[in-house]
Amino acid sequence: MGDPWPDLGSRMSEAAGTLTRMSIVTELSERLPGRVHGPGTPEFDAGRTVFAGPGEAEAVVRPSSADEVATAVRVATSAGVPLTVRSGGHGSDPVAGGIVIDLAELSGVELADGGLVHVGGGAHWGDVASALAPHSLGITSGDTGDVGVGGLALGGGIGWLARTHGLTVDILREVEVVTAAGEVLIANDAQHRELFWALRGGGGNFGVVTRFTFEAAPVDGLVGGHVRFDQSDVRAVLRAWRDVMAAGPDELNSTLLVMPQLMPEMPAGPQLAVALLGSEAELRRLLEPLLSLPSVTEVALAPVAYADLLEESPPGKPPFRLVGGNGFVPDLSDEALDVFLRALDREIPTMLMLRALGGAFSRVPADATPIAHRDGQALLAVNGILPPDATDEQVAAARVATDAALAFTSGEYSNFTPDFGEEQLAAIFPPPTLERLRRVKAEVDPGDVFRASHHIAPAR
Ligand SMILES: Cc1cc2nc3c(=O)[nH]c(=O)nc-3n(C[C@H](O)[C@H](O)[C@H](O)COP(=O)(O)OP(=O)(O)OC[C@H]3O[C@@H](n4cnc5c(N)ncnc54)[C@H](O)[C@@H]3O)c2cc1C
């Protein structure tokens, strides 16, 4: 005889799950009136959407204090519901169900004594730069204004002033963090030191950071802009750029981008984005080996405000598949640059980006933060640009040249690694660093509540 109640068990547990989720949303709404947003509201749609696209969620909570964050964490964890934390929403991993804690209401920027700046965990870098501009101050961070302080800072933060002041985490002095147990802690060099270490590059695995305290620096007298080149001698551009940056002072920061011709109206070839804390004459003198190349097509250099260096991000994930990766380049040797060049010189359209490091970035000891590859003279990102439905053969062909280029790198930068798993974790963190991160995780989040994109499981 057949089962009279087919699938009864799974239907009952599904119904129980639905009831549990409904009661969590009800409980959250009672505990945090006006802060919980469900389907059909703009807050819900904004909260469940990141750069990678919209995801699934039961509800979006917008707390306005660390205590409210703690309440949301306690309610969600006691019911065993997945939690996602959202700052600027530029992460690469779509929201996958449960409760989203959207920190949009925690976006204040407050100047304190001694050049310290308290920044809410949900602020955007453009807002931070604008708020500090009247004080002639800036914080070394990314190059895009609408990226969130939370995700970028917890992953490291490579931006315009990386050679001058290091990574964003290198000038982080303190965090206020809500743990999985719903405790509000202050972590710095004097208390909760291991947690503070882990939060400077270990991502969103250890709690919800509601407030960052950074040490800002003067950004007066900034000059910058761009230089474009045609494709006639990319080798000469790569070598001259390497030499200019190696000889230049820490105050000189730049990124060299080499784009293929994707559209007829889009110029292909190397483009240099550059900024110097100094004068325009000094910048032109430092860049002379590049500016004197016959392939130069455009030079635009002028005084610039730090806030104006930050760009707007593109509207969403580009409609193609990027195949390749990133890594820190300890030695920009002629051989390495020639292999990078060969990655460009092929039928698969390929983009290459070199962000200059060295300087203050490289003077931080390897074990001072989870970002250990401090000998990097540049961060290389190299990607073949394929259609979204590329075949396995096309992907494999694209990888041949990008892998050859990446062989000259060590480690990976987590914020630029859009794939997630143990293989990526092993590439991002050297084994002792990863073990240390897992030990911190076991201390502060033994139940593994915070499963950020680059998920670090607790040590057992
Ligand atoms: C257009 C664009 C430009 C970029 N430019 C740069 C750049 O110049 N330099 C650079 O270093 N990176 C850059 N990135 C990468 C960027 O740093 C990461 O994608 C980062 O995760 C985005 O942070 P977010 O807060 O905007 O994203 P979100 O999607 O809000 O957050 C990403 C993840 O971080 C965690 N998280 C965020 N805030 C908190 C918090 N307060 N507490 C706990 N966990 C939190 C969560 O796990 C979340 O899933 C860029 C990305 C894009 C899309």
UniProtKB/TrEMBL annotation:
Cofactor(s) essential for the protein: FAD
InterPro entries: FAD-bd_PCMH (IPR016166), FAD-bd_PCMH-like_sf (IPR036318), FAD-bd_PCMH_sub1 (IPR016167), FAD-bd_PCMH_sub2 (IPR016169), FAD-linked_Oxase-like_C (IPR016164), FAD-linked_Oxidoreductase (IPR050416), Oxid_FAD_bind_N (IPR006094)
Keyword Oxidoreductase set for record: yes
MF terms (GO), sorted A to Z: FAD binding; oxidoreductase activity
Residue ranges constituting the FAD-binding PCMH-type domain according to the UniProt record: 53-219
Record protein name field: FAD-binding oxidoreductase
Keywords carried by this UniProt record: FAD, Flavoprotein, Oxidoreductase
Keyword Flavoprotein: yes
Family recorded in the similarity comment: Belongs to the oxygen-dependent FAD-linked oxidoreductase family.
